[in-house]
């Protein structure tokens, strides 16, 4: 008898962690695995959160979170996307976007139901679908098609058991962002086939071409969309573990019920910090975006200098999905070689699904000096 459950044993170990766990064995590594901002949370957010804690904001909140924060989020989506979410019924505050995703899947997925995923994909999607008793269905996306999940690609993978589609725009790991036309095509499929769309919008403010558009804002899509979002990437608040979900009142009600049995509520202090971030954080968000733009341009220049590798310029997030097919080695072998011989850490593309083979995920959420140093080292071993 296994002491551990079949449920947990079926979950594959993250390929990202293999490289992370090896990094301490080497000195002076330039870490381009990082999946978070290298910036510290803006000081005014820290200050106000500290003051809130000193004033007594250290207790449980409602399962769905502080109403004031939900009201701020409702106002944000009304202003930015033109859609209204009732703060008291259609919004829940969670311990990061990861818990929002977990509560969403546990709420809507019955055993054996299928969830469509673009491949490459963020590995936690697969794990959480499996935990919920669902079946992940991987739909190939291609670099030459911009890495987006298209209606044409989705259709052959739909069955009578399909319950939902997950989209991530801008995307981790590919940096793709969906155009309005592409969202409209996915929306048409969702409405025609009566599917739920889970829209992961955690990188919505880190976008380089155009503006973010939520699929929930399209006609007829708000009732069948669960929007997942977070303060982690936008405000450099990864350690605060604060996110949220928006959806129909029937779904959010059940998510809030489940929240009682999972975490009770998100951190009260983190919720206070999130309120300040939404009210006062726009300038800080813009400054960080400008830094990311500089780094994006720099890393594209460095790749251009390196003929053995290439990439599709990312439209959002802070990742390059680097094409290494000319090297004629597996992505894992290349990642290990670069770590051992160049002291540069990257993530094998195979960690993000079958279609990720032949690529590496490279984060440019590091200083410009580190980007230059990393590519000098890489060129030195090619």
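Sequence proposed for the structure above (382 residues):
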């Amino acid at each position: 008898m296994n002491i551990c459950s079949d449920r947990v044993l079926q979950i594959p170990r993250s390929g990202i962690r293999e490289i992370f766990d090896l990094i301490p064995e080497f000195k002076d590594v330039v870490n381009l695995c990082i999946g978070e901002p290298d910036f510290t949370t803006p000081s005014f957010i820290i200050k106000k959160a500290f003051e809130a804690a000193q004033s007594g904001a250290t207790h449980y909140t409602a399962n769905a979170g502080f109403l004031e924060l939900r009201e701020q989020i409702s106002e944000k989506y009304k202003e930015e996307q033109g859609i209204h979410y009732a703060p008291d019924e259609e919004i829940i505050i969670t311990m990061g976007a990861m818990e929002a995703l977990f509560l969403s899947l546990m709420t809507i997925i019955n055993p054996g139901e299928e969830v469509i995923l673009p491949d490459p994909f963020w590995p936690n999607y697969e794990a959480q679908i499996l935990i919920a008793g669902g079946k992940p269905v991987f739909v190939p996306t291609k670099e030459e098609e911009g890495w987006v999940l298209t209606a044409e690609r989705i259709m052959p993978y739909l069955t009578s058991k399909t319950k939902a589609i997950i989209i991530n725009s801008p995307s981790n790991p590919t940096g793709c962002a969906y155009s309005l036309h592409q969202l409209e095509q996915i929306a048409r499929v969702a409405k025609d086939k009566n599917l739920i769309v889970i829209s992961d919008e955690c990188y919505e403010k880190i976008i380089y071409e155009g503006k973010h558009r939520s699929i929930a804002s399209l006609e007829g899509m708000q009732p069948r969309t669960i929007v997942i979002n977070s303060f982690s990437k936008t405000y450099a608040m990864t350690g605060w573990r604060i996110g949220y979900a928006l959806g129909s009142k029937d779904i959010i009600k059940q998510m809030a019920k489940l929240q009682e049995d999972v975490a009770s509520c998100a951190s009260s202090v983190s919720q206070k910090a999130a309120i300040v971030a939404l009210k006062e954080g726009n300038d800080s968000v813009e400054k960080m975006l400008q830094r990311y733009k500089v780094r994006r341009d720099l890393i594209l220049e460095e790749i251009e200098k390196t003929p053995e590798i290439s990439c599709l310029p990312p439209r959002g997030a802070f990742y390059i999905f680097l094409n290494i097919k000319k090297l004629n080695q597996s992505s894992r072998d290349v990642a290990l070689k670069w770590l051992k011989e160049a002291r540069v850490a990257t993530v094998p593309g195979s960690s993000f699904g079958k279609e990720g083979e032949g690529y590496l995920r490279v984060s440019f959420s590091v200083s410009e000096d580190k980007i230059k140093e990393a590519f000098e080292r890489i060129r030195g071993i090619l």
